[in-house]
């Protein structure tokens, strides 16, 4: 194993390769991706994953299974009565499904949970010698000043003080990383929203927090030391900084994808307008239909890209 | 609904009640615990959960199901061929099982994931008017200078700079909370380890990090900018601060349980000695048997307490 770009870098078919930046991987005979329960010593990664071009990730394992089924239908790869096996079925930490060139992976809730998954996913793509990979987080979020059901494509993830950065603690010291995402990819996804014309789609900043209740100024947690007015003032400041939705994974996702040379986007639907409330009181059916919107948008994008590459 | 201690406070049977500190809950007609998919408007919480005295939480939903089955056997409440229903079966965010006075709940990985669960669990216990509740996190961890398989009962959770505190961001401002746990409960659990004499059990400090790879000085992540020597120096500093294991949830668990008046303990097994390596390369069977140790210890404690209360 080698650190840095994969061998294709110097080959004839020079693609954009997932990047690991860890010289210690050189000295390892095998790499156990513990939370996926996958091992380079017992599985041929290039054979299993080498053709992956799109990775879609989301919090809920059920939703990522449903996305795998949906994309199989969209790409004409669906087999009647087929069950898509969970590649990580012997662990309950994450779920992973593969449909042709598309990998669908769950990441749980919050920065630490997605960060473990991304470390192992980036190593997986690297060991498999994948090239030209696009990765999209499909998520749910709280909106600010948007109709519930609006899909937000993230311009840049911001922290709870509205700065576009992700703070990582390494050896007890703070390291600040950029949360820049791929601007062209965001525009292409916005165009897909326009093509579909089924729901509102916008590009805006996304606030990424470490907590769902106090961290997002909710009034309905077990603890709350601030007033409705304090909450509204905080949300208004976020709005002024260009923030239109709030979730819990985008900042570390952007930072790690940038470090690993992956084209990355974050596409989240808003389940409610936080200026009007905190509780998720819409019916199950309404919330479920909202949650399908990022899947529909990104499914359309993948189909469009694959059709374009067939023609060229 | 009222904030503060439950009504029993002024009643004859004055128990120690779970505390919510949120005046806004007063004005809510119903409370939707979204990530549990439970609603006070449609479920009688006191009838369903009012008898809960012990709550055990852990990252993996499978492990918490297996704990429910185990404790049912230990308490003589097992019914042959019985399936324990997942109370949150209509969501895949968390899993919850109830066996007599014991609730077993999963929390996923990392501080944000357990924090969402704890907000909703504390409100659940409050709405159900539970009293005298003891809560224990059963987990896995990396050890420092301990034989793999040692069970660590946490004295105090520490952050990545070895300070016994949890930093919570509220309205964009940092609030520091104490991570003090119940010292008497820790001693009682240590005594249970001595009673059983099946594996090593110690009381020590636990470091709680936001990341599994760079955040815990691992050399096997997708990124690593430090040397083996840097890693060993960092772990040595942790050891000098009394830290004997590292995991990802204990600090917010301690902080939130303290704020809500719950007797709390953290009991984690160490799966490896981090001074000797980073990869979890032990066999599945060995790791599985290690993971059962916190369950066995806490199962023994619960049985002991329930037998003592029957006698008194």
Automatic annotation (TrEMBL), chains A, B:
<comment type="similarity">
    <text>Belongs to the PNP/UDP phosphorylase family.</text>
</comment>
<dbReference type="InterPro" id="IPR000845">
    <property type="entry name" value="Nucleoside_phosphorylase_d"/>
</dbReference>
<dbReference type="GO" id="GO:0006218">
    <property type="term" value="P:uridine catabolic process"/>
</dbReference>
<dbReference type="GO" id="GO:0004850">
    <property type="term" value="F:uridine phosphorylase activity"/>
</dbReference>
<keyword id="KW-0328">Glycosyltransferase</keyword>
<feature type="domain" description="Nucleoside phosphorylase">
    <location>
        <begin position="53"/>
        <end position="302"/>
    </location>
</feature>
<feature type="binding site">
    <location>
        <position position="216"/>
    </location>
    <ligand>
        <name>substrate</name>
    </ligand>
</feature>
<dbReference type="GO" id="GO:0044206">
    <property type="term" value="P:UMP salvage"/>
</dbReference>
<dbReference type="InterPro" id="IPR035994">
    <property type="entry name" value="Nucleoside_phosphorylase_sf"/>
</dbReference>
<dbReference type="Pfam" id="PF01048">
    <property type="entry name" value="PNP_UDP_1"/>
</dbReference>
<comment type="pathway">
    <text>Pyrimidine metabolism; UMP biosynthesis via salvage pathway; uracil from uridine (phosphorylase route): step 1/1.</text>
</comment>
<feature type="binding site">
    <location>
        <position position="218"/>
    </location>
    <ligand>
        <name>substrate</name>
    </ligand>
</feature>
<dbReference type="InterPro" id="IPR018016">
    <property type="entry name" value="Nucleoside_phosphorylase_CS"/>
</dbReference>
<comment type="function">
    <text>Catalyzes the reversible phosphorylytic cleavage of uridine to uracil and ribose-1-phosphate which can then be utilized as carbon and energy sources or in the rescue of pyrimidine bases for nucleotide synthesis. Shows broad substrate specificity and can also accept deoxyuridine and other analogous compounds.</text>
</comment>
<protein>
    <recommendedName>
        <fullName>Uridine phosphorylase</fullName>
        <ecNumber>2.4.2.3</ecNumber>
    </recommendedName>
</protein>
<feature type="binding site">
    <location>
        <begin position="137"/>
        <end position="140"/>
    </location>
    <ligand>
        <name>phosphate</name>
    </ligand>
</feature>
<dbReference type="GO" id="GO:0009166">
    <property type="term" value="P:nucleotide catabolic process"/>
</dbReference>
<dbReference type="GO" id="GO:0005829">
    <property type="term" value="C:cytosol"/>
</dbReference>
<feature type="binding site">
    <location>
        <position position="93"/>
    </location>
    <ligand>
        <name>phosphate</name>
    </ligand>
</feature>
<keyword id="KW-0808">Transferase</keyword>
<dbReference type="InterPro" id="IPR010059">
    <property type="entry name" value="Uridine_phosphorylase_euk"/>
</dbReference>
């Amino acid at each position: 194993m080698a650190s840095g770009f994969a061998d294709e870098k110097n080959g004839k078919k020079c693609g954009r390769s997932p990047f690991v930046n860890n010289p210690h991987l050189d000295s390892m005979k095998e790499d156990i991706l513990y939370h996926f329960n996958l091992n380079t010593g017992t599985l041929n990664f290039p054979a299993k994953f080498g053709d992956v071009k799109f990775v879609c990730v989301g919090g809920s394992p059920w939703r990522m299974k449903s996305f795998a089924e949906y994309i199989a239908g969209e790409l004409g790869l669906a087999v009647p009565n087929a069950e898509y096996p969970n590649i990580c079925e012997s662990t309950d930490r994450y779920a992973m499904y593969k449909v042709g060139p598309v990998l669908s992976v769950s990441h749980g809730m919050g920065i630490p949970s997605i960060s473990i998954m991304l470390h192992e996913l980036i190593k997986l793509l690297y060991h498999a010698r994948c090239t030209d990979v696009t990765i999209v987080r499909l998520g749910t979020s709280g909106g600010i000043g948007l109709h519930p059901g609006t899909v937000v494509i993230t311009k840049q993830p911001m922290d709870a003080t509205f700065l576009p950065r992700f703070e990582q603690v390494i050896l007890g010291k703070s390291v600040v990383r950029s949360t820049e995402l791929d601007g062209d990819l965001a525009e292409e996804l916005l165009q897909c929203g326009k093509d579909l014309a089924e729901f509102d789609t916008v590009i805006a900043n996304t606030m990424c927090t470490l907590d769902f209740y106090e961290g997002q100024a909710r009034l309905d947690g077990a603890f709350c030391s601030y007033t409705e007015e304090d909450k509204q003032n905080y949300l208004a400041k976020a709005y002024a900084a260009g923030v239109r939705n709030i979730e819990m994974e985008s900042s570390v996702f952007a930072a790690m994808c940038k470090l690993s040379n992956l084209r990355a986007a974050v596409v989240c639907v808003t389940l409610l307008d936080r200026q009007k409330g905190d509780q998720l009181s819409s019916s199950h059916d309404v919330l479920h239909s909202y949650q399908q919107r990022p899947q529909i948008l990104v499914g359309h994008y993948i189909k469009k890209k694959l059709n374009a590459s067939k023609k060229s």
